Amino acid sequence: MKKHYSIRFLLLAALAAGFSLILVFTVLYSASAQRDHMEEFSHKYVDGLAKSYFDGLNTMMVTGTISNREVLRDKVMAPEDVLDVRVIRSDQLNRMFGGGTKAEQRRDPADKQALAGERIERYSSNDDGRIYTLIEPVIAREDYQGVNCLGCHQAQEGDVLGAIRVDYSLAESDDRLHKQLLASGGIQVVIFIVVFFLTALALGRLVFSRLRRLQVRMDEISGNSDLTIELDVSRNDEIGSVSLAFNRMMAKIRKSMHTVMDNAAQVEQAARSIAAKAETTGREVMAQKDNTDQVASATTEMAASAVQVRENANHTTRKSAETAESANSGERLARNAVEGIEALNTEVQGGARRIEDLNQRTSQMASMLEEISNIADQTNLLALNAAIEAARAGEQGRGFSVVADEVRALAARTQVSTEDIRRTINGLKSEVVDCVAIMHHASDMTGHQVEAILKVESELQSIASAVREITSLNQEMESAANEQSDVSEAINQNVIEISRSAEQASTDAQETADIAGDLLVMAETLRETIEQFRLTRKNS
Q1: In a 3-state reduction of DSSP, which class is residue 131?
Q2: CA distance 525 to 264
Q3: What's the whole-model pTM score?
Q4: Contacts of 44 (CB under 8 A, 6+ apart)
Q5: b/e burial code for range 439-462 (CB count within 10 A of at least 16 → b)
Q6: For the CA atoms of the chain, what is the radius of gyration?
Q7: 171 CB contacts (<8 Å, ≥6 apart)?
Q8: What is the reported pLDDT for 140?
Q9: Rounded Cα distance, 475 and 316, in Å
Q10: Which positions ≥6 away from 119 have C-beta within 8 Å?
């Protein structure tokens, strides 16, 4: 669970954090500033010391007392902070004036860098503390700190003749700085504590105590449910403004509570009215639902009857269609039979005519056979005469006799054949006559059959026409049954919708009654809740 802190704690913590940050920043800034100041002082001191040492050496060179330069060095190193002061001789200077003392020789890379013409400033440290080192190169010039180096040292302009090195201890300065920072920090901490407690005391008396009184007053309002209580406004400050705003808010709450109480009474009356109307509506809707259910039942029965009629009409229509199809098929068969018999009659009559023609030709053939028979008789007679004459001619007529014999034999065979043909033609004529009689009889019978079939066709046409009328009536009845069924279905659907709407209306009426009941309960509860608060002051 998240821990919650009081505003007093948070505000004091914020003040403490702010003062702490200010304290830390002030101490750090002061330390940095004092350190920078101290280092700047040290730089100036060491730089002045190096210049003074060089001036001393220069004076000794001019006066010819350079051999006593160690005395000068010891004097310059007399302060405890000065760790070392020495001259670093260049190679050129050693060549001109000798190697010098041991202290005047180069010792570390920094000395070498300085002899190359580079000014060296660096910080280092030992067991005692920090050390500031300055190495100032001495460059040959006509005017170097008031001295012409070129005349004495026989050097060129810009040559590095040597360097002045000073090692200065910052341990004592750092120690003094540390002690000053501790003293300053302690003073600032004391000031911070005093200011913090004074601020906390002022906040407690000016803010928190008044907020506590506000809290007590609000607890009194909450405990007594007395909305007539107002806060005391003693000062024209932020808390006084909050108290005034709270009093204005309580006045608006009292006004709103009066309005809510009036509205609650109106809502209670409206809820009672809605509940009564909902109950009446529910009864009316249930009565309407019962009537609608009866109509729906009757409509359903009518729709079922319409469906049965439609099914019977469909069945009758199918049977009528089958009967009509059978009548039409019989009519077509009769028509085909008539056409076939008529075609057969035509063929029979044609056959009769051809048989009659055959009979006539047979008669003609008989006549022709008679002529052939006569010709054969005459030929036989002529052959006989020829044989007689050949016999008379003797040897000269022997050949002619042979011919006459052959002709007579041919005439005999022709006679025999003619007889055979005559008998055949006579038999054929008899059969042809019989066939002609049969053909005529068949033609007569065909005519009678055609008439009978034509009567059957006429009857079938009448049957087909009647069936078509019955089918038309059945279709009309089926259409009417379909329309009746559709209308009944539509009425049934409407009745169902009305019933469903009535049921929904009944449900809605019940829900409205329930809501009205709940609203009545809430209105009564709201009224009771508001009555717990005191909205008017008691008359004293």
Answers
A1: strand
A2: 9
A3: 0.39
A4: none
A5: beebbeebeebbeebeeebeebbe
A6: 80
A7: 128, 129, 130
A8: 78
A9: 9
A10: 135, 136, 137
Question: How far lies 223's CA from each of 153, 245, 255, 534, in Å?
Answer: 105, 21, 20, 12
Tokens of 158: 């810009």
Strand order in the sheet with 82-89: 82-89, 160-169, 130-139, 120-125
User: What are the residues whose beta carbons fall under 8 Å from the beta carbon of 498, sequence distance 6 or more?
Assistant: 292
Report how far apart, in Å, the C-alpha atoms of 359 and of each of 216, 353, 425, 431 are.
157, 10, 9, 9
Q: What is 273-528's CATH number, 3.30.565.10, 3.40.47.10, 1.10.3720.10, 1.10.287.950?
A: 1.10.287.950
Using CB atoms within 10 Å of the CB of residue 66, give its burial: 0 to 12 exposed, 13 to 18 middle, 19+ buried: middle
Question: Rounded distance, CA 90 to CA 137, Å?
Answer: 10
Hey, what CATH class is 7-203 in?
alpha beta
Tell me the C-alpha distance between 234 and 213, whole Å: 12
Q: Which of 327, 418, 413 is nearest to 366 (CA)?
A: 418
Locate 392 and state its tokens. Answer: 């008379």
- Tell me the three state secondary structure of residue 158: coil
Query: For 246-254, which contacts have Cβ atoms below 8 Å and span 24 or more sequence positions?
Result: 246/214, 250/221, 253/227, 254/227, 254/228, 254/535
- Inter-residue contact 422 to 366 (CB < 8 Å): yes
Q: What is the DSSP string of 353-398?
A: HHHHHHHHHHHHHHHHHHHHHHHHHHHHHHHHHHHHHHHHHGGGGH
What DSSP assignment string belongs to 235-264?
A: -SSHHHHHHHHHHHHHHHHHHHHHHHHHHH
Domain boundaries, the chain: 7-203, 273-528
Buried b vs exposed e over 413-422: b needs ≥16 C-beta within 10 Å?
ebbeebeebb
In a structure prediction context, what are the per-residue pLDDT tens digits for the chain, which is 540 residues long? 556 667 777 777 888 888 788 888 888 888 888 888 888 988 999 999 988 888 888 888 778 888 888 888 889 888 888 988 988 888 877 777 777 778 788 888 888 888 888 899 999 988 888 999 999 998 877 766 666 666 566 667 778 888 999 999 998 888 888 888 888 888 888 888 888 888 888 877 777 777 777 777 777 777 776 667 776 666 676 677 777 787 778 777 777 877 877 777 787 787 778 777 777 876 776 776 676 677 567 667 666 766 675 776 677 677 767 766 766 776 677 677 667 767 767 776 777 677 677 777 777 777 777 777 788 778 878 777 877 877 777 777 777 677 777 777 877 777 787 788 778 877 777 776 777 777 677 677 777 766 766 776 677 677 667 667 767 766 776 676 677 667 667 766 776 776 677 677 678 767 777 877 787 787 778 777 776 666 666 654
Report DSSP state, residue 233. -
